[in-house]
Design goal:
The protein has 239 residues and is an alpha/beta fold. It has two domains: 174 residues, 3-Layer(aba) Sandwich (Rossmann fold), CATH 3.40.50; 41 residues, no CATH class. Helix content is 38%, strand content 13%.
């Protein structure tokens, strides 16, 4: 009888552990996949079992099985107790999968962190404008190590993994920077396509109004001052 009770207790404890364990979804645009690789490398350097604990569709080790359609896989994933890392860039807002993941995470009340590439924090739209932590990672060689260490600790806590010392986490970050810094420097500049563009401000004296994307007479995509009273033409050609 005692053996049966012990086995039942072990089974109950295992089930409880499974229910409490989160996985981590890295929501990103494929154009900036290298930033996702950088994040994954940090946790790999900490000996985290990324193949079991991370969902990252740009790496075959962490994406949907071959016989499962990717959107069905993600839909099922959001039914789990997952944590989301958003790698937010101008590309992010041009990506249908990213927008869908944002909506799914909001609808299922998932907690999240924001890693910001090339926009300002105040330009991040709802519903992902109140993260557990926000860290700029555009230039990984100038990354705020204190903030990045805190981010790593938050993620480790969410997936019930022990958190090592600051020195060990810092070394894991430094090693990832060494691997990916040159690749990131070679990334091409973003060319806006549709939904989101950071709005530069007009440089005319006493104007300082936002500039919107428009097509000029020749079909070029340009930023143009939104102030009709602006006395200086401040068109900025994009492509």
């Amino acid at each position: 009888m005692d053996i049966v009770m012990e086995e039942n207790f072990q089974f109950y404890r295992t089930v409880q552990s499974m229910e409490n364990t989160r996985r981590v979804l890295i929501s990103h645009s494929r154009q900036y996949k290298v930033y996702g690789d950088f994040v994954v490398k940090i946790f790999e350097n900490l000996n985290i079992d990324i193949t079991k604990l991370f969902i990252y569709t740009s790496d075959n080790r962490m994406t949907a099985p071959n016989d499962v359609e990717i959107f069905d896989y993600l839909k099922d994933s959001f039914r789990e107790n997952i944590y989301v890392i958003y790698i937010i860039s101008k590309y992010f807002y041009d990506s249908n999968p990213c927008i869908l993941e944002t909506g799914a995470a909001w609808a299922t009340n998932k907690n999240y962190s924001n890693l910001i590439v090339d926009i300002e924090p105040n330009e991040i739209d709802k519903p992902i404008d109140a993260p557990d932590i926000s860290v700029r990672i555009g230039d990984i060689e100038k990354i705020d190590l204190e903030s990045m260490i805190k981010f790593v600790r938050i993620v480790l806590g969410k997936i019930n993994c022990p958190s090592p010392s600051d020195l060990i986490i810092r070394n894991a970050i430094d090693q990832a920077v060494t691997v990916y810094s040159e690749l990131i420097k070679k990334l091409k500049a973003f060319k806006p396509i549709r939904k989101y563009q950071a709005h530069p401000l007009c440089k005319a004296r006493n104007c300082n109004q936002p500039m919107d994307l428009v097509h000029d007479e020749k079909g070029n995509v340009i930023y143009r001052c939104t102030n009709p009273l602006c006395s200086i033409c401040n068109d900025v050609k994009i492509y």
